[in-house]
# Entry
Amino acid sequence: MASDWFEFLKKDFVQGFPAFCGFEVTHADHGVFETCLKVQDKHRQQDGFVHAGVISTMADHTAGYAAYTTVTRKSRILTIEFKINFFKPATSPLLICRSKVINNGKKIKVVESEVFSASDGTEKLVSKAMLTMTAVPAENIQAVS
Amino acid sequence: MASDWFEFLKKDFVQGFPAFCGFEVTHADHGVFETCLKVQDKHRQQDGFVHAGVISTMADHTAGYAAYTTVTRKSRILTIEFKINFFKPATSPLLICRSKVINNGKKIKVVESEVFSASDGTEKLVSKAMLTMTAVPAENIQAVS
Amino acid sequence: MASDWFEFLKKDFVQGFPAFCGFEVTHADHGVFETCLKVQDKHRQQDGFVHAGVISTMADHTAGYAAYTTVTRKSRILTIEFKINFFKPATSPLLICRSKVINNGKKIKVVESEVFSASDGTEKLVSKAMLTMTAVPAENIQAVS
Amino acid sequence: MASDWFEFLKKDFVQGFPAFCGFEVTHADHGVFETCLKVQDKHRQQDGFVHAGVISTMADHTAGYAAYTTVTRKSRILTIEFKINFFKPATSPLLICRSKVINNGKKIKVVESEVFSASDGTEKLVSKAMLTMTAVPAENIQAVS
# Structure
């Protein structure tokens, strides 16, 4: 059942570095994934803005799980590369990331992630990324290239 | 004195999210910066490799400080965008990042970061990034674009 | 008048390399620009597909003029960098490019271009680009960085 | 013989769009490729500089053939994506592009291209690109993703 797979991925998302950062899952469906982060001081850079690394991690990990929703347990998703633009500093207490698969090839999946800085019900687009991911057989996870 | 500035930047580097991640500075000079990370479980993703977000954060932050070495206290550095490729999974206990300014414009600085997975004295290039950064007057830090 | 400016840009678009390639303008409005290309053999690569360079040129030049629609004659637009993904080979007789400014900063403008391969009224998204452009004073056109 | 393969690729390079643009090959070896272009008015943009599309096409096509030097006739090379930065306007009468494979995976090859504006024996680095390419079996050339 696809919905079982989405529920599994919602839990699987929160482990290792993403768990350490504090990302939470808010939505999952075929080809889409949404997460959020309650911003704390540990997420900031030297000028008090959310660090580009936090935003990049969120954009990458959420995109990876958007790609996971399009495959089965037999596949693993690895990031080949991504590009991310930072539009304005993120200063609000909440970050929201929405990722969407925009080209769902069998092996190569291209995903977009939009990151919003949210406050009092308003959202500001602070960053956008385009990511190239590859689906590899789970038993062959070392063979990235 | 340039060397005072480099010493200041070595300390300034470790705060907020990069401190939380555990990055350490090993070298700084005009247009170059080098950092390392002792890999722990909290840095990993679902397959046990170092998370792409850790590598991206290291590539971005080290590049930012490479750019800082080319300006004075009157300027702040902000990331406009970057692109990063992941060549192979990082599985070793140590990550090393070396960043270099490759085009030192007055306002726009292009920096490259190479990330190595190191073990027993051997280094393997696992990731490379190209980053576009902007130097803004310190008193005008909000005006990113 | 904005509409005069858009009409001027529609003509200004077709000169130099873009004229040599054969691009035509189909639409211009604030923050958006649309162009097309009737594909000929001279646009192909070694396997018979439209060359990635043709698609890149179209994505870049159309994006540049989308950015131009947001400024006045006092500014010139220059490309700082772009990233482009190729989803599938373009094999149809017509290419269409639609560009849109997605973050309209005063100096830094981020634009997206989508390129479609069209045939018999159907369009297939074959490529997408994200571009970072800068608006510089027309009298200072050499000062790119 | 590898040298036969390199000689074949030097000729194969100049066809379709790259031939139309006027690129010439100056060097080929395992993992590297070098080309040049005598700049004419048809290569320029609205401000008189070499068009970003010309530089992008040169960076992409030269990188593709650098990747070709690492495979055999049984494989075709396709561009998955690339990112390119423009450092300064190219105004000299000659462009030189040097491409190098920096990660030679079996299926995924990452290549760098540097483009120089040359005049009177001096070269100025005007652009740098990082490209992700894929080697596909020649008999299966349509299956890009």
